[in-house]
Design brief:
- With about 270 residues, the protein is an alpha/beta fold.
- The protein has 11 helices and 8 strands.
- The protein folds into 2 domains: about 200 residues, Alpha-Beta Complex (2-enoyl-CoA Hydratase, Chain A, domain 1); about 50 residues.
- Strands 1-2-3-4-6-8 form a 6-stranded mixed β-sheet, sandwiched between helices. Strands 5-7 form a two-stranded parallel sheet.
- Helix 5 packs across helix 6 and helix 9 packs antiparallel against helix 10.
- It is globular, with a radius of gyration of 20 Å.
- This is Enoyl-CoA hydratase.
- It comes from Alcanivorax xiamenensis.
- InterPro entries: ClpP/crotonase-like_dom_sf, Enoyl-CoA_hydra/iso, Enoyl-CoA_hydra_C, Enoyl-CoA_Hydratase/Isomerase.
């Protein structure tokens, strides 16, 4: 399956890592409907290529994503005025579907967060498996200050940082930097220079690639299922997955490599 053609994002595969860059720097990578659709196509490609073990998502021009595209909002307003009473619903819900899809990617999702990380960009940060931030990045939920609501983002923010903090951020629109984001639990690591941020990214990818590919995919499914299914059902499925893993080629190779004191063949 060939990489999809894109206009608003760039896709650069490098071995078992796919680098995805939001590429609308003139608008601080504001999330247009075209960008949403192109990200969905990129996620289709990742799911169809199990050799992709990590996806790195970042923004061009010094910013991650400044939120939704005002032009799309204006377009939806025109459609609504012309009689389409689903225009705003369709636009907003499509973005939510993309964020949910990003969260459930079989590959590990690593977000590199610089500059503006606002609105929809904040939502994407909250579904990453690993989030790395520049110390001077600017995070926030500005929606209520604009007379709208963080409709598709709020559930992911609540799951990331908890109800108490999510309420405060959503109802005040407070802005905070990368260090504040780490204190809240939005991001895992913060770097105060470009060089340090790139070094942390390299280290993170090295750690991911040391793990067994199939084991990582199943583990991600397990972790996500904890918040959605009864505990006994989660543990039953986990036991079945464990039994499969132990007897799989990966499980046997991992055990043999440990005994022989060498790296397993997937590294």
């Amino acid at each position: 399956m060939t990489l999809p053609e894109t206009e608003t994002i760039t896709l650069n595969p490098d071995g078992s890592v796919l680098f995805v860059t939001l590429n609308r720097p003139q608008s601080r990578n504001a999330m247009s409907l075209t960008m949403v659709d192109e990200l969905m196509a990129a996620f289709d490609w990742v799911e169809a290529n199990p050799e992709v073990r990590a996806v790195v998502l970042r923004g061009a021009g010094g910013h991650f994503c400044a939120g939704g595209d005002i032009k799309d909002m204006a377009g939806a307003r025109q459609q609504a005025a012309a009689g389409d009473d689903q225009a705003f619903f369709t636009l907003n819900r499509r973005f939510g579907a993309m964020v949910s899809r990003a969260e459930r990617l079989p590959a590990a999702l690593v977000c590199v967060l610089e500059g503006a990380v606002l609105g929809g960009g904040f939502g994407l940060a909250c579904v990453s498996d690993v989030a790395l931030a520049a110390g001077d990045a600017r995070f926030g939920l500005p929606e209520t200050g604009l007379g709208v609501i963080p409709a598709q983002i709020a559930p992911f923010v609540v799951r990331r940082i908890g109800l108490t903090q999510a309420r405060r951020l959503a109802l005040t629109g407070e802005r905070f930097d990368g260090h504040g984001a780490r204190a809240l639990g939005v991001v895992h690591e913060v770097a105060d220079s470009t060089e340090e941020l790139e070094q942390r990214l390299r280290h993170t990818l090295e750690q991911i690639l040391r793990c067994a590919p199939h084991a990582n995919r199943v583990t991600k499914q397990l972790v996500l299922s904890v918040q959605e299914r009864p505990l006994d059902a989660v543990l039953d499925q986990a036991a079945r997955d464990f039994a499969d893993a132990v007897t799989s080629e990966e499980g046997q190779e991992g055990t043999l490599a440990f005994v022989q004191k060498r790296a397993p063949d997937w590294t």
